[in-house]
């Protein structure tokens, strides 16, 4: 009977990664096999004496015994089934089955991978584990494109034209002109005015505009940003903040690119603090004009796209000063250049210079020295100066008016993450397709194998592949919420948009770095595009607001919801919040549940959702309790939030991950194609378990899980990465990215 344990003995001594504690787990397992004759058990225990390793000949004998079984038995899939065959299928050996399964989980042993230790070099599982087209890529792409398929196809057809070939010169001036020409071509194709109302020459299709921006992002991101500044920020600020007279005078010219413009909000020393902007717009009753002025050099508009070269007008955000009184931030249309391209009198424009990326965008600084504009240039949807020179607004509250004005521009926080995600999809498509073709190393005496077959390579890329699908569906959900919003939902939607922008762009930043490293030196070559994708998306974490600031906005929104429900945040209310809304939590924190490791449980969506929701609610309650304690002790609320900022980040992150998981599951529930659904479920499982693994420290500290469970989660993440690898190439092909937008050498040259 001792022969049945040869594979386990071989693994114990051949795996130099096992710790002494894990070695003791093997001894404990053998000692617990009370059904074995005492002599056999004593012999086995003598073979796992840490101070007395076996001879090389004995190791070879153990390995040969296992190899012979695998050579004749194709259905062996686990350490137990291999050992059972070696026992001669002795029924008594079945008593060891549960112990084997538990031991495999504790040691993190993956059955099929472990069996490779005993196979011949040409027949190892790693060597044979290649790409399989097991589902219809076209159907998966149709699921991803949804009702945006038509505009996606139109954009891709344009991007594959010869005039959209990549610009490779390092001449920044020439690059900016090329990007401007591309924008003009898109405008000529009636894509620039897509979101504008039909009565002003537009397409009236805001959803199509978001799809357009996303699909343009498979090409050149300088084009995306230049296009977004012109038709999104400049055009949509006039549309959303202006009234009919502004729409009539400007939108058609903006949509055709006859009137290039800027969005001048950010100031040198004020950045994301829009309320703290110091540029002024002072009203003069006699002339019925506003004077736009930059008080100091620190208050100039900075990082303004389209300013350094092409912009002729700008939406300028400035404090309205009326009869000496400050009426807060409002928006004004201000000319900045004459027809010949020279700055108008009183406007000084300078170039921000060479940047880390996006050098096809002409970012500039704008300084206003008492520039006079007519009264009608105030974008007056939410505030105006009436005919008698008095301030008027349909929204009496200054705070509410300010946030309503900024809320109309939340579309930027939807377009940016969708663009960023498209960039990461491009990086994943390049890295995964390359890794599938690139062969290196291999078993002794065997051929080299694709690097995508290596477990660590899968660990680097597969979680980001899963996350790309998860974020795809979450951003589609956010887009639909925004386009179908009701007034009472706006605060929630704004917070969700801020959070998704932050979460997505941080994911993209990290994911593209992993893609670069995963293809080695090839990823450092510009022709393979990873460098441009990385450098151009770095600023996405700052665009539309610094991510850390935006995540605090999300957290404050969640605390606001908490306060609505529980008023004074007393202990009873918080306990109710944490436990009553997750009725299985108490049961799940018993010793059986916290250690439960069976695969059916770990792959159950209900387990994933409950774990995400529990973490979110517990962190939120903890943050609320801490803030209340600090404020009750006499600390100023401003200081209290500063002390608790790190918890605010956790509150926001946990909320966003729960929403992303829910939207992924919701999308899967609507899929009818079995092949696609099977793959999406696997990706959802990997996303969920990888996030649980990422936060395992929190779950262990809280007592929601114990170490056997987190080890089992880690093992299953490894297995899911292994399983999804076979589908990885068709899964990135389902993005539908044109080959012309991917790395030339990756796709066309032999490796």
Write structural notes for this entry.
With 751 residues, the protein is an alpha+beta fold. It folds into 3 domains: 2-119, no CATH class; 261-407, Butyryl-CoA Dehydrogenase, subunit A, domain 2 (Beta Barrel); 412-745, Up-down Bundle (Butyryl-CoA Dehydrogenase, subunit A, domain 3). The protein contains 31 helices and 13 strands. Strands 1, 2, 3, 5, 6 and 9 form a 6-stranded mixed sheet that branches. It has a 3-stranded antiparallel sheet with strand order 4-8-7, with no helix packed on it. Strand 5 (313-322) and strand 6 form a beta hairpin. Helix 20 (547-566) packs across helix 27. The longest helix is centred in the middle third of the chain and has 29 residues, at 455-483. The two termini are 50 Å apart. The mean pLDDT is 88.
CATH class assignment of the largest domain: Mainly Alpha
Stretches where pLDDT is under 50 for at least 5 consecutive residues are none
The first-to-last residue Cα distance is 50 Å
* Fraction in beta strands: 5-15%
CATH H-level homologous superfamily name of the largest domain: Butyryl-CoA Dehydrogenase, subunit A, domain 3
**Secondary structure category:** alpha+beta
Number of strands: 13
The overall pLDDT average reads: 88
Total helical segments: 31
Radius of gyration: 31 Å
- Which shape, going by the Cα principal axes? elongated
Number of domains as seen in the coordinates = 3
Helix content: 55-70%
**Gross CATH architecture of the largest domain:** Up-down Bundle
Key features of this structure:
751 residues, alpha+beta, Butyryl-CoA Dehydrogenase, subunit A, domain 2, Butyryl-CoA Dehydrogenase, subunit A, domain 3, six-stranded mixed β-sheet, 56% helix
